[in-house]
Amino acid sequence: SDRTALLALRSAVGGRTLLLWNVTDQNTCSWPGIQCEDNRVTVLRLPGAALFGPLPVGIFGNLTHLRTLSLRLNALSGQLPSDLSACINLRNLYLQGNEFSGLIPDFLFQLPDLVRLNLASNNFSGEISSGFNNLTRLKTLFLEKNHLSGSIPDLKIPLDQFNVSNNQLNGSVPKGLQSFSSSSFLGNSLCGGPLEACSGDLVVPTGEVGNNGGSGHKKKLAGGAIAGIVIGSVLAFVLILVILMLLCRKKSAKKTSSVDVATVKNPEVEIQGSKPPGEIENGGYSNGYTVPATAAAVASAATVAAGTAKGEVSANGTGTKKLVFFGNAARVFDLEDLLRASAEVLGKGTFGTAYKAVLEVGSVVAVKRLKDVTITEREFREKIEAVGSMDHESLVPLRAYYFSRDEKLLVYDYMAMGSLSALLHGNKGAGRTPLNWEIRSGIALGAARGIEYLHSQGPNVSHGNIKSSNILLTKSYDARVSDFGLAHLVGPPSTPTRVAGYRAPEVTDPRKVSHKADVYSFGVLLLELLTGKAPTHSLLNEEGVDLPRWVQSVVREEWTSEVFDLELLRYQNVEEEMVQLLQLAVDCAAQYPDKRPSMSEVTKRIEELRQSSLHEAVNPQPDAAHDSDDASSR
Ligand SMILES: Nc1ncnc2c1ncn2[C@@H]1O[C@H](COP(=O)(O)OP(=O)(O)OP(=O)(O)O)[C@@H](O)[C@H]1O
């Protein structure tokens, strides 16, 4: 049984479990570091518990329901016990910071559910097996600081995190791993990818210069070859310049009033729109980042468009170079107004750059300049019409759009308080409105209603990119969901976002997102709202777990002291409701889609718990009321 196995572990490697575990307590599941489901041990966490010596065979063969095993930072040694292969439900295996040795055993590759594997800082030796390719769900692989040798196999699994630094590896970094930074590979004899190019990468086909075919030595280029390359490059550059100049002349002679926006790309705006590295990050704290522009970025697109749009509306509505508005009474400004507006950069996102444009009449709009739109104009218009027809008080309204070959603009209502992301993680200085329970639970409810509305449009309508920078706030902190329907307008991101944080585990193509995947992302958003921690924060703790797993790893009794944002804790009278909302967040972020509630259920639960907290604030109830509530819900 699980109990026998735990007792065997205790007597084999002892450590602090000798003090921690009260063996007279028959309820093994209440022992520190242990969590159970249906009376079977699913989580065993004994980090830094002074465990010592080899793990004998005969223990883990019984703990077959284990999902998380963390024995990091102990002094365990020897080979990994072969009966660990029986733990086929294992998802998280954290063994870093021990003295394990021998080969990385093949049985690990037979654990189909493994998501996180950390074997760093041990004495493992031998080669890294291509058997890791069997672990199709693996997201994190840490093997740094061991004695691993040989070359790195080409791993084709979609890893979020990977590190093999400080081993004795050689050869080149395989293609599939080249997007990781050099720090993942340093301290080896590796080359290629983020590291220095491998010798042999530069093959110059002349008699005296080039690779000698396998000796591994890089031959220096001869002086003559270098001169040849330089002169050749300069000539090619001059030739391109001449061609460009000729082309430009031809074009301007042809017509002074070109029809296409593409010809008036405003270099000034381009510069102002580009971000200084590190300052504006996708999903980061970009709100409030302002670069005053003499003319809006949108104006660059609008300049010619406005000049040519008048009277050029074609009968079918396509091919027009003008703003297309949604709704009946919405046409309160036109391209010329946008042209005269002053603009500032709000931030750069997955789909392009967002600007704030202040119109001369005083109204303010947000303009999103889309990049990487690969679909045809017809498809674009069809899809954007569908987005524009969405109408709900918890969505950021899309007012208008503009389409030309080189410029695609979306015009939204401007949300004065910026994004939830900026509010939670941005300026925490004095003068900021404290984010109390009422505000946070109200934001949760507004966002839930917006997503519920989107889902009510049909089984194929999902948001696909729920995160805190896409929840925007009005002056009165009402939440509005933004960026819906955009994933279908643009091509796949050129660089896949590695640590998405919000993305459900089953999602492989970010454009194919189900209702249940939105629910997962909303769960992460709720956790962010309650903990104040950003889910994209690199390593939430030393184990590199994501926000949902971190919250789950903290026992429920300790949620109040360990998990909640300190600012929120000042409002003690709503502790029970806070715990309920956290439980809802955990339910939403369940690993398996079928276990997650629907958005309408989510909205209902938030409404209920908010009602009880508001009621309580007005009519404080004695504790007994809670007890009876609990009893009835059990
Ligand atoms: N309608 C709006 N009103 C006010 N601010 C906005 C509006 N739309 C976007 N922003 C701001 O502009 C920033 C960039 O937005 P954008 O939607 O382009 O990127 P993102 O939300 O960070 O990422 P993604 O494109 O992946 O959704 C956001 O952080 C938000 O603060």
TrEMBL record:
GO terms for molecular function: ATP binding; protein kinase activity. ATP binds at K368. It is found in: Membrane. InterPro entries: At_inactive_RLKs (IPR050994), Kinase-like_dom_sf (IPR011009), Leu-rich_rpt (IPR001611), LRR_dom_sf (IPR032675), LRR_N_plant-typ (IPR013210), Prot_kinase_dom (IPR000719), Protein_kinase_ATP_BS (IPR017441). Its main location: membrane. GO terms for cellular component: membrane. Gene3D superfamilies: Phosphorylase Kinase, domain 1 (3.30.200.20), Ribonuclease Inhibitor (3.80.10.10), Transferase(Phosphotransferase) domain 1 (1.10.510.10). Residues 340-618 form the Protein kinase domain. Residues 624-634 have a biased composition (Basic and acidic residues). It holds the Pfam family LRR_8. Keywords: ATP-binding, Leucine-rich repeat, Membrane, Nucleotide-binding, Phosphoprotein, Receptor, Repeat, Signal, Transmembrane, Transmembrane helix. This is Protein kinase domain-containing protein.
